[in-house]
Amino acid sequence: MRQKNRLNNWISIRMGMVIVIFLGVSCGSMKSSTPPPAKDRLTEIDSLERLLPDCPTIASTLPLLRRLAFLYQQQSEMKVYNERLYENAMAVDSISVAYLGLKNLAEYYYDQSVRDSLEYYCSLVDSIAKARHEYPNVLFDVKSLSCQDLLWLGNYELAMSEAMDLYRLASNLDHRYGLLRCSETLGLIYQRIRRDSDAVVSFQESLDLLKDIKDVPDIMDTKVRLTSYQLESSVRTKQYASTERILGQYKALLDEQYKIYQEKNDLLSIKREYWLLYSFYTSFYLSQGDLENAKRSLDQASSYADSNWVEGDYAINTYLAVKARYHKAAGDIPLALHCINEVLETERLPEDIQFKADILKEQGLLGEVMALYDELYSTLTKRRGTSFLRQVNQLRTLHELHEKELKETELKEAGQRIARKQDLLIFILSISVVLLILLYVLFLYYRHLRSLKNQLQREKELLLESQRQLIKEKTRAEEASLMKSAFLANMSHEVRTPLNAIVGFSGLLVEPSTDEEERKEYSSIIRNNTDLMLNLVNDVLDLSRMETGDLHFDIKDHLLLVCCQMALESVRHRIPDGVKLTFSPAGEPIVVHADNLRLQQLLTNLLTNAAKFTEKGEINLSFQLEPDRKKVRIAVTDTGAGIPLEKQATIFNRFEKLDDYKPGVGLGLSICLLIAERLDGALFIDSSYTDGARFVLILSCEIDSSIYNPPIEV
């Protein structure tokens, strides 16, 4: 899990920064907060391990044990020295050092994902704190780790239960650091279930609490961590102004830290933060469609990429995920797929699974897409469990109630101070003034009650309206699901049929026994089926682009006669034997203001549709001026099966088919209707014609008297 890896990295990087000052040890090597180079580290470890047995007292072993635990961080020896640190500290009643050892052990097992050991050391901290009747910061540190560990393990309900218990404890004690850790944990929970707006608020509350707390160790690192969390959620909210502000704050913090770490010769961890920063910048610009700035930020992020981080590190996966999204936006689909596959090898977040599914869907790999959707559905169902969401809302309510109680207490104290100052004046007020005040209070009370009643009524109406909207949206979603299923089924059939023909006749085409006449026939069949597949794909793409407004229309003046002739020529080879294709143009040169290509596409679709359902008789394309001479009526008439009256109202709907055994997916007439609307025209069925079907297109036009238009025969 990316978030768990992120916290692991924070713990491993920052553990060395925790320096206990309880003894004020002046030994130079022990004051260092940065791990020394490998050779120096081994030398120092060897020296300290030689000194340890010669310590005259247990108390004198504590600085050595603390330093050894630090030098062995994230190794099994670290656990051994922290255990000794805890035992020796308890023996000399050095509770602060004992707490440090237990906290380090809890962080170690949190990092190693060993739940039982983490719970054990959390319980040790809790038992010591209870025995001493105190609530140190470390208690809230380890309990927060336990809660977050449950969250990454997917045990959402138990994680929320622990979070609520921890929040009640911190709230009852008004423990500011405890409230800070609770707000941070609540923010991580919101982030986990992608309630990012709430997560941004929770992390901001933690940052606000941090300003008022004086005894937070490594306050700058804590501020960087919280701002980093807040930034990750803010980028997803697409609140660009606030996200840009948080990006600036995060960069300012890193620039400030860079100076500190530069003096300590420890730039590895801060480079990692810059790596994250510019990855977030890339995501920010991508969300706005700004590929130029996104490319610049991605290049800056790449300059900080470091091979020292282990596979699955949060920074690596964040960088790769953003890189994949950039390459997809830039049109480099293979590289985008490669990057997202690297991420999915170490973690499988819903948004990354969805991203890969979208790519594979565009490539037509429906089997793999459905498998990814099954995985995505399972993950989201687990996250959005009713009980878990109810607990999230309960914790949020507790948090809001606590804030309300604090404000009420402040208001109460302020009111008491004012009341004491006014006591003297109350005694000299006249009865009339008292009566006026009472009347005024009653008036305010009445107005307040009336306002509450009106507010409740408005909220009730809003709830009823929301319920109606939800019902409508549910119905739309169900209809969309049915349409999607029908579309996939039709697409599978329509693609498979020409593919089978292409594959089969391609094999026959290369057979030595095939003569030249048969080769020509097979080539024609292959070409026809290729055209069918191309038209199918073009229909789907055109419909999608027209609905999103991405399809460009080049509107110019064109002779309608020429447009019709080109449309007729494009479908002539599709006319069945025994069917005549005729053309009846008007006698005047009519000019239409339209996109020539799209108008031909509309006419071609109507003629192709007529050819599909006409087995004998005639297909006629005609146009004539309307009586007002400002519009032209274009008609495609056939003698085919016709369209029943009950179907005429829905024939222009997407995926609507009269005959499931005819080729096509039911998009042609939908595309025709969209093109007609974009040309400011009208397309409809002439229900008065009963010998087949007649589609009528009405467009605005002009008469070009300078052009002679002789009669045309087809």
UniProtKB/TrEMBL annotation:
Residues 446-473 form a coiled coil. Keywords: Coiled coil, Kinase, Membrane, Phosphoprotein, Transferase, Transmembrane, Transmembrane helix, Two-component regulatory system. It catalyses: ATP + protein L-histidine = ADP + protein N-phospho-L-histidine. Its EC number is 2.7.13.3. Residues 490-703 form the Histidine kinase domain. InterPro entries: HATPase_C_sf, HATPase_dom, His_kinase_dom, HisK_dim/P_dom, HisK_dim/P_sf, Sensor_HK_Regulatory, Sig_transdc_His_kin-like_C, TPR-like_helical_dom_sf. PROSITE patterns: HIS_KIN, PROKAR_LIPOPROTEIN. The chain crosses the membrane at residues 424-446. GO terms for molecular function: phosphorelay sensor kinase activity. CDD domains: HisKA (cd00082). PANTHER family: SENSOR HISTIDINE KINASE RCSC (PTHR43711:SF26), TWO-COMPONENT HISTIDINE KINASE (PTHR43711). This is histidine kinase.
